[in-house]
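User: Design a sequence. Structure:
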């Protein structure tokens, strides 16, 4: 029972330390091992994808420039809009971090229900955005082994990023390092696909080394 002389509405400092009860600090197994385990989860996803679906030269010959004009225009415009949405997402992250002071504080102020809704929305949003861009990108550059990793690695990073949010809120702010790393992987993969799509559709005369390599391998293995 609280002390009858203690005024909960007073601005005076609390002198009795026993009144304040804080949850215990998480063990190193959780605060350090948790983020490391999450990184291994990302690597395990990539390994399993490579194990179950190894790379092989496709029989498909595909170029975005061979699509009907309406399809090229629609895909090109959709790619630009996805790029605009991507940068608005970055602006939102910058605003929220500035408003709350840190990622830890941002998720600490988020209710459990809000985090569930936040996770649901971003799982759909990340998956849809990278799926719509990743399919035509991967089909166009289907002869380049390392290009076939951009799409799935971006998705794996997005999923790992979302899981790390729960770690930040309920376990340790150390999960923020995983959030930043996965955000960089996802953002880099997504931006690389956006640039590649826009370049192929709107600026076909602007050719990079991967274009020549992709076409050379297509001629070598028709």
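Assistant: Done.
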């Amino acid at each position: 029972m609280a002390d009858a002389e203690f005024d909960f509405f007073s601005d005076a400092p609390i002198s009795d330390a026993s009144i304040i009860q804080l949850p215990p600090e998480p063990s190193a197994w959780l605060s350090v091992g948790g983020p490391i385990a999450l990184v291994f989860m990302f690597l395990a996803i990539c390994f399993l994808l490579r194990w179950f679906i190894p790379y092989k030269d496709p029989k498909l010959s595909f170029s975005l420039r061979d699509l009907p004009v309406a399809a090229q225009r629609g895909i090109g415009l959709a790619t630009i809009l996805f790029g605009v949405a991507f940068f608005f997402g970055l602006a939102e992250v910058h605003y929220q971090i500035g408003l709350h002071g840190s990622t830890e504080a941002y998720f600490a102020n988020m209710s459990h229900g809000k985090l569930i809704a936040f996770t649901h929305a971003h799982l759909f949003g990340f998956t849809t955005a990278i799926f719509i861009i990743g399919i035509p990108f991967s089909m166009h550059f289907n002869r380049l082994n390392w290009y076939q990793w951009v799409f799935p690695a971006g998705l794996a990073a997005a999923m790992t990023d979302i899981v790390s949010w729960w770690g930040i809120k309920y376990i340790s702010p150390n999960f923020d390092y995983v959030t930043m790393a996965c955000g960089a992987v996802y953002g880099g993969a997504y931006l690389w696909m956006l640039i590649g799509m826009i370049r192929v559709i709107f600026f076909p005369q602007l050719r990079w080394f991967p274009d020549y390599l992709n076409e050379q391998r297509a001629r070598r293995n028709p």
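Residues 69-100 form the longest helix (32 residues). The chain has a mean pLDDT of 88.
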